[in-house]
């Protein structure tokens, strides 16, 4: 897991570097699901319109990001994760003895520090060797921020069908609900040491769940790729489905982090190629036998709507930022799946704007402006 050099230098996490491997020879489903992404509306706490979050305020460091055109080297200036002069102030947050004034009246835990935990797959690990993963980049979007990246390569939201019991002792894979139980103290972190590594286990044990402000949750691609059911209409909390796992995992974490907000991020748009490099379709047309990736993405949003204190980042919609069938070559690596550095910067700014809107730093109009990649060229 990546070593997170946040402002507080709280902890580094190390995970193996990985990118999503191209899907080979899946079936193609021409069913149009492009209109299935639902607006994000949950007790007024999410951005109006669900998916039109953009960064025109300058607070998200977009201008500095755009200054660098390199997508293979370490980021410069605002995206060097060790920069800013607030290291000493931020490190005090972990001592639980020094408190600042709340960052805003809407700060979930009003201790003056933004404590953010990332849970998901390798979309939050891409760029770890260079120190510019999405969690890395978030450290420069806010002052007084502690970032914990608990993302794990190739992981799913749902538990495997072979797991018939949901007792803590029966979790063998670090899917979302299992990791929720780890943070809740029901499962020892070292149970998943082969996935988390030594530093990852230490991070799980270090996090004070009572002070977490935001959990950023990003699952769904591997549920889709492995043919796991997206939902169970008869049991919306079925952990064997993506929808049910997200609902159950959030509820588990809410028991130990009652003030936290949960940001559910859908999978983003991608393109698929066969073993010969032929384009066979995109997230709205290619299926692994059950549904398209877009359907799974929509289920993450619907799951968030079923929970309280949730915000939604429907990345696949194309209106949060303009990643779509026309621009994907600018956002993604040649595999059509992995976000390049520019794409990760834009994604980070979209995520930061969602938090800023929730904190009351920006208004609805600004929050509903689509980020365009042309602004980063």
Automatic annotation (TrEMBL):
Tell me which positions the record assigns to the signal sequence.
1-22
- PROSITE patterns reported for this sequence: PROKAR_LIPOPROTEIN
Question: What are the UniProt keywords, alphabetically?
Answer: Signal
Which InterPro entries does the record associate with it? SGNH_hydro_sf
Q: Does the keyword Signal apply?
A: yes
Region feature (Disordered): 27-103
Q: What Gene3D superfamilies is this protein classified in? A: SGNH hydrolase (3.40.50.1110)
- Comp. bias intervals (Polar residues): 33-45, 65-75
- The molecule here is called SGNH/GDSL hydrolase family protein
Q: Which organism is it from?
A: Butyrivibrio fibrisolvens
* Taxonomic placement: Bacteria, Bacillati, Bacillota, Clostridia, Lachnospirales
């Amino acid at each position: 897991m990546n070593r997170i050099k946040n402002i507080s230098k709280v902890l580094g996490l190390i995970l193996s570097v990985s990118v999503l491997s191209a899907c080979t020879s899946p079936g193609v489903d021409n069913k149009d699901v492009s209109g299935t992404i639902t607006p994000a509306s949950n007790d007024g706490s999410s951005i109006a319109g669900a998916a039109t979050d953009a960064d025109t305020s300058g607070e998200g460091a977009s201008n500095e990001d755009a200054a660098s055109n390199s997508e293979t080297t370490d980021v410069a200036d605002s995206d060097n994760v060790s920069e800013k002069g607030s290291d000493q102030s931020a490190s005090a947050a972990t001592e639980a003895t020094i408190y600042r004034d709340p960052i805003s009246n809407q700060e979930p835990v009003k201790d003056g520090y933004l404590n953010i935990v990332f849970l998901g797959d390798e979309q939050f690990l891409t760029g770890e060797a260079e120190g510019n993963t999405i969690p890395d980049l978030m450290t420069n979007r806010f002052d007084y921020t502690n970032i914990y990246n608990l993302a794990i390569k190739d992981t799913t939201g749902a538990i495997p069908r072979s797991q018939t019991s949901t007792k803590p002792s029966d979790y063998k894979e670090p899917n979302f609900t299992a990791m929720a139980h780890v943070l809740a103290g029901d499962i020892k972190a070292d149970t998943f040491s082969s996935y988390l590594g030594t530093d990852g286990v230490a991070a799980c044990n270090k996090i004070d769940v009572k002070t977490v402000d935001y959990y950023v949750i990003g699952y769904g691609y591997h549920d889709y790729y492995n043919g796991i059911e997206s939902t169970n209409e008869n049991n919306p909390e079925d952990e064997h489905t993506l929808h049910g796992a997200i609902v159950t995992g959030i509820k588990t974490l809410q028991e130990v982090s009652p003030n936290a907000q949960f940001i559910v991020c859908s999978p983003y748009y991608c393109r698929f190629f066969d073993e010969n490099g032929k384009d066979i379709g995109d997230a709205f047309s290619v299926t692994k036998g059950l549904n398209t990736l877009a359907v799974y993405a929509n289920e993450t949003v619907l799951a968030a709507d079923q929970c309280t204190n949730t915000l939604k980042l429907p990345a696949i919609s194309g209106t949060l930022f303009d990643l779509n069938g026309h621009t994907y070559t600018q956002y993604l690596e040649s595999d059509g799946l992995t976000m390049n550095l520019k794409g990760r910067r834009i994604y980070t700014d979209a995520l930061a704007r969602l938090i800023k809107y929730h904190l009351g730093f920006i208004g609805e109009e600004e929050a509903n402006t689509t980020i365009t990649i042309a602004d980063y060229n």
